[in-house]
Amino acid sequence: MSQSQKVVIVTGASQGIGAEIVKAFRARGDYVVATARSIKPSDDPGVATVAGDIGNREVARRVVAAALEKFGRVDTLVNNAGIFIAKPFTQYTEDDYAAVINVNVDGFFHITQLAIEQMEKNKSGHLVQITTSLVDHAVNGVPSVLASLTKGGLNSATKSLAIEYAKAGIRANAVSPGIIKSPMHAPETHEALGALHPVGRMGEMSDIANAVLYLDSAPFITGEILHVDGGQSAGH
After folding, report:
1. CA distance to 51, 72, 181, 191, per residue, from 188 (Å)
2. Contact, 106 vs 113, CB < 8 A?
3. Number of folded domains that form the chain
4. Confidence at residue 1, expressed as pLDDT on a 0 to 100 scale
5. Rounded to whole angstroms, how far apart are CA atoms 137 and 217?
6. The CATH number of the domain where 230 resides is what?
7. Closest-CA residue to 41 (of 114, 33, 10)
8. What is the pTM for the complete model shown?
């Protein structure tokens, strides 16, 4: 493995944006540890998979251990795993709340702590959180309090981590998407969802993957929340 090749952990990697991010890093020649609840083994020798609930610390330990065992280090962590439940605030159940906190917050906490421990040993590393522009620009008709509560927390944590670990050579950034064409959204909803963006269309999964790659290759950027949202966060 050359020093130009990175070892990247991607959570929520079995489908959608996570799978697209894995594909983008592999196209660049990097090695990837991909994790999700239902992820299957990969035929690609440059991809190691770990199945499990990222909100469980033991799963996070297994992910980092796989990176070290197969590829020798951890260079980049992409915290992509997330749950979005759109309900009026008073209709959220305790189970809804627990599920969102488990993935969006606990999952971030466990894997990020363990990844930073490895990055500190190498005096370099990069953390990227996938959040949401709903944090900055709530949309009437898209109830999203739990998303804003958790993903908004990740935006703030990103800036805090960027400052805390700047002198350790570890950067932290976030990509804040608008509504992206992914398996989460049925094709018949695309026109209406696209209209929620000033540019008049939904984003593509490749838009998010390209933003992650850009941040990963930009060593003077840290503490940035990069909005990839067709202008949503700027206003209407």
Report:
1. 31, 45, 11, 7
2. no
3. 1
4. 59
5. 28
6. 3.40.50.720
7. 33
8. 0.95
